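Batch 3, record 17
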Amino acid sequence: MRKLVFTLVALVFALPAAAQNYDAVATSQATANAVPGARRSPGNAIPVPTNEVSPQLQALIGAAYPPTFNAAPKNAAEWHALIDARAAIAAKNIPLMKEKFGVTVEPKIIAGVKTYIVTPKNIPERNRRRLLVHVHGGGYVFGPGEAALSEAILLAGFGGFKVISIDYRMPPDFPFPAAMDDAMAVWKQAVKMAKPQNMAIFGTSTGGAMTLAMVLRAKAEHLPLPAAMAPGTPWSDIDKIGDSYKSNEWVDNVLVTWDGWLGRAALLYANGHDLKDPQISPIYGDFSGLPPAILTSGTRDLFLSNTVRTHRKLRRAGVDAELNVYEGMSHAQYGFDMNAPETKEAFTDIARFFDKHLGYK
Amino acid sequence: MRKLVFTLVALVFALPAAAQNYDAVATSQATANAVPGARRSPGNAIPVPTNEVSPQLQALIGAAYPPTFNAAPKNAAEWHALIDARAAIAAKNIPLMKEKFGVTVEPKIIAGVKTYIVTPKNIPERNRRRLLVHVHGGGYVFGPGEAALSEAILLAGFGGFKVISIDYRMPPDFPFPAAMDDAMAVWKQAVKMAKPQNMAIFGTSTGGAMTLAMVLRAKAEHLPLPAAMAPGTPWSDIDKIGDSYKSNEWVDNVLVTWDGWLGRAALLYANGHDLKDPQISPIYGDFSGLPPAILTSGTRDLFLSNTVRTHRKLRRAGVDAELNVYEGMSHAQYGFDMNAPETKEAFTDIARFFDKHLGYK
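Prediction for the assembled complex:
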């Protein structure tokens, strides 16, 4: 009997709703949602969207789950093995990107912190005195070294900006606040390399959260603020709090669920600190006085709520904040394929936003 | 056996995913999503979000499905009975709204079309020569007479604008293109009542689609365009095309599913015309040269994809387009409770956007 139930349950999960009888589903759903409270939805098969979505993005949207979505490393050695395996895959793409966008990448130690200086071959006159600071994504664990440079290369390439990308320390060896300490040490030096009003900070996912946390900490420490920021689909609430953590669970095919490696990385990074500390979950910070922001997400993004909560909270604090949400897109896929039109669109939009808000003299 | 399967299927639909064993779900989901293609997600119970969501909006998000979501009127008489029943409920609220916002409402025939002139008690000096045109929502079938005035009252009240709200003809008696013919007849007269550069068009859902279709038709007919528009969660693709029609099916507790009354209303309105006609599904129109637009949606909105597809297509056409997406919100709930902070926020944002883009001399 137990096996029968399991088989039937698996069958229902595998069945597309469309193949079930609509009237039976409607009746069952009406019953399940006849009282106020949690929203109940049935198992679902969501086809790959084709309208306003490029073939390249369709391929990303339709891709199978990453095999590591539910990885559960038991110790530091297992974390390192996972981190190294993912880094090896990501790093393969970097030489192709450098070539396509004609950028050079040079390692440089700034304030004792490892960074990369990403420089486009041609910097427009208007960008010569501008400087961007990049904090990469990867759940505070993934993306050591050159493996996390893709976003820096994309914005250097599409926007014609010089970028400092911070290779901050990460768990399992260096939990919170090492990453933020490294990022702030670099920021303090970076504002001597260009005028802060000619600078912006950007990053996606963990990098989006760090972008917000850096600006919050700069404000608290009375350091210069950048003139703009681009927290892309920011991990602004590191805990499983926010509607899309549930509504897009199992729908997003990049992060898939908080309960996989993602939540494990969150706890590893926080290392016992309060998950609502604004330096860990910047959504709980005071957004007043923050610089203009451009945010990017997708309708299937597990962090859609992180993004729109941040957008709304910025606007409620009177900050000029712009939101872009891509059809059918899961987490951070706007940076996955350097040849997808949506990648060009997203980074060109960010570059245009920075150009509007940054000084150039 | 058949009954057992049905019982078990119903059980799975009713079970919150959280109550199931996470590892079993992860395994089942990994298997179901190990190959590219449609995204498969399990039955889900999504709690009411509480962060960045007011108690009033939480009540709307948690509300049970509307009992009529799956209504299937078989003939004109049954449509009229349904339309009248819904109108009676909606109309009850109008006197309270008039009182709260201190607006007057006067019926007026313009170019042979029924309209209401909604006038706030105090019109700021800057708005004295400005005029807004409102097209209401309701799937092209609901909202005759005063029942559909709430949004016009909200923008008149929060923004201090004079508004013409169009009580256009609707199915079952008047299918496409009657609604659009009425709206355009009013527009042609309205541009003689104020300067077009001092005017905007707005509406939600069906009204959002009509806003876009009006501007497209004005462009095609070389009529004056408004200086701005606010297509709120627009029904820009009347067909069940777009990712959130599936990903937010059964999650949105306002429209619930295209396959209920909504799709039936779509076919009733289109009356055999091509659903991809840009006057019926404006997403298929040419957006170049359109005026600045502000769009509003929610993470649970069945029309989230309609909204973001429209936003992206406007921006790709070079139109200044602003997007606001509310945490946990289903379709059009930003206009449901006149006392919710999000209602004030959404309509104040639209008013501010209009103030930025409309002339005033």
